[in-house]
Write a structure and sequence with these properties.
about 260 residues; globular; 10 helices
């Protein structure tokens, strides 16, 4: 892809073009996003790896803090991703990627990015609570009754069948409800950091852009699944390439769908 951004332009949010709104792109562009991600990864391999290591260490530290650490991870995701969108733009303009890009979201557009994290966290908790409530109403009484029924092979089989069905229905419900949230959050950090949007409008535009490009995203997802499998085989070491490329692919898809430049 030839960059639509002049190399001499400074990589700051204020100078970024304001996206006019989502547009539909050809199905093949879903594959091109991965190609563009590779183009953004190769000029700064060492720095991408260092950033990834910092993110892994930060994730491990937060995971050691029960509940609060998990909540903090969800709040930090948009802030860190927003900063890396600036990093991708810097590479796109022929400028270096630096550690500062990872934390740029704390100094530029910090309020909207943190608010985006709060909205995402609140909706995710609401989805989990909704699924749990539906399962409790639908299966809870039946499974609970079987647990205290006469212990025999038939009742045990019925209990296991009920538990399996509950897990399957719960997983399906979660995916159905959580997918729209993923669609709403996908472009939101880029729209806030690069497009100057506020959190809620950014989520609505992100969702609209995802809906308009279901087929390209299907192609993108299938390729991503293949890359994930390959990355996992050599002791997971391939993720040191695929993870940065995934971040860069978000930027590539954002530019393709929301800005004037085309991925080719």
């Amino acid at each position: 892809m030839s960059s639509p951004f002049p190399p001499e332009a400074p990589p700051i949010a204020a100078s970024s073009p304001s996206p006019a709104g989502p547009r539909s792109v050809p199905a093949g562009n879903g594959a091109s996003w991965w190609g563009e991600a590779w183009r953004l990864f190769t000029p700064a391999v060492a720095m991408w790896l260092l950033i990834l290591v910092i993110m892994i260490v930060l994730s491990i530290v937060l995971s050691l803090i029960p509940v609060i650490g998990h909540l903090a991870s969800n709040l930090l995701y948009p802030v860190l991703t927003g900063g890396l969108m600036l990093g991708c733009r810097a590479i796109d303009r022929g400028q270096p990627l630096t550690i500062n890009h990872l934390f740029a979201g704390f100094s530029e557009r910090a309020g909207p990015l943190f608010m985006l994290g709060l909205i995402y966290l609140g909706l995710a908790i609401a989805i989990v609570a909704t699924v749990a409530g539906i399962l409790l109403v639908t299966f809870g009484a039946a499974v609970f009754t079987q647990m205290f029924s006469i212990n025999n092979a038939i009742s045990t089989s019925v209990l296991l069948s009920g538990a399996f069905m509950m897990v399957m229905v719960g997983t399906l419900l979660f995916l159905v409800l959580f997918l729209p949230l993923i669609m709403a959050i996908w472009f939101a950090p880029a729209l806030i950091m690069l497009g100057g949007r506020e959190p809620w409008p950014a989520m609505k535009e992100s969702f609209a852009g995802s809906v308009q490009n279901v087929v390209p995203f299907l192609v993108y997802g299938l390729i991503g699944l293949g890359l994930a499998i390959v990355a996992t085989i050599p002791l997971g070491l391939g993720w040191f390439v695929v993870a940065p490329m995934t971040i860069a692919s978000i930027y590539a898809s954002y530019c393709d769908i929301f800005e004037t430049g085309n991925v080719s």
